[in-house]
Design a protein that fits this description.
alpha/beta, Rossmann fold, 2 domains, five-stranded parallel β-sheet, 8 helices
Length: about 230
């Protein structure tokens, strides 16, 4: 019996220490019980050389499922990931796919509202349409900073609905069926009240500024102060 093959592309510049890595790896591990091999192609955009990019593109051609896991950067995909997707698209246009892999995207952001992720999910949907991949839908949620790179099993009770949503989605992904609407709706639930998340996020932001010795910069308002 041939094992199915899943590929994971981690789009976070933080690589192995990222929330995107934790989320994508959770899916890969759970897919093993649905006939996917334990040897999967794990790629980090931050470490992608031309040789590794070529190897990933070749792996896409033999894959059953491709997972893009990335954070939102200014309402969009991180720039290194865009570069990889452009390389994949160019190669596939020149040499069309013989096997049509399924594609899903796991998108999280520091914003409390999941709606912020929708343009990025739509970008990946269009990428699938233009490259001939089978788009299964996206798994998107806000408040990603609360996960902070931890494995989902160790991130605490606040991620229980994320785990439940992923568990609902995994059987569908394994069989190349669209992500269930119930899973999408579950991910729209905030992990905590937005005002509490704002307090925690601001505290973390100020703490980081102290570590970098740039507290005063937080008070700068260049666009307000500049005269046009």
């Amino acid at each position: 019996m041939n094992m199915k093959k899943a590929l994971l592309l981690v789009g976070s510049p933080r690589g192995q220490a990222s929330t995107s890595q934790a989320l994508g790896s959770y899916l890969l591990n759970k897919l093993e019980s649905f006939g996917y091999g334990s040897e999967t192609f794990l790629a980090y955009v931050v470490a992608m050389t031309p040789e590794k990019t070529a190897a990933f593109i070749e792996a896409v051609r033999g894959a059953d499922l491709v997972i893009f896991s990335f954070p939102l950067y200014v309402d969009h995909l991180p720039a290194p990931m865009i570069k990889i997707l452009e390389a994949i698209a160019v190669d596939i246009v020149r040499h069309p796919l013989e096997k049509r892999p399924a594609l899903t995207a796991v998108v999280q952001s520091g914003f409390p509202e999941v709606i912020q992720n929708r343009p990025a999910v739509e970008v990946v949907r269009l990428f699938a349409a233009q490259t001939g991949m089978n788009w299964l839908g996206g798994l998107a949620f806000g408040m990603g900073g609360a996960v902070n790179g931890k494995p989902l099993e160790k991130a605490g009770g606040m991620v229980r609905h994320i785990i439940k949503a992923f568990q609902l989605a995994i059987p569908s992904l394994a069989e190349s069926r669209p992500v269930p609407e119930e899973a999408v709706r579950l991910l729209e639930k905030p992990m905590m009240p937005p005002f509490l998340y704002g307090i925690a996020a601001n505290f973390s932001f100020r703490r980081t500024a102290r570590k970098k010795a740039c507290q005063e910069s937080l008070r700068h308002r260049p666009y307000l102060e500049k005269s046009f």
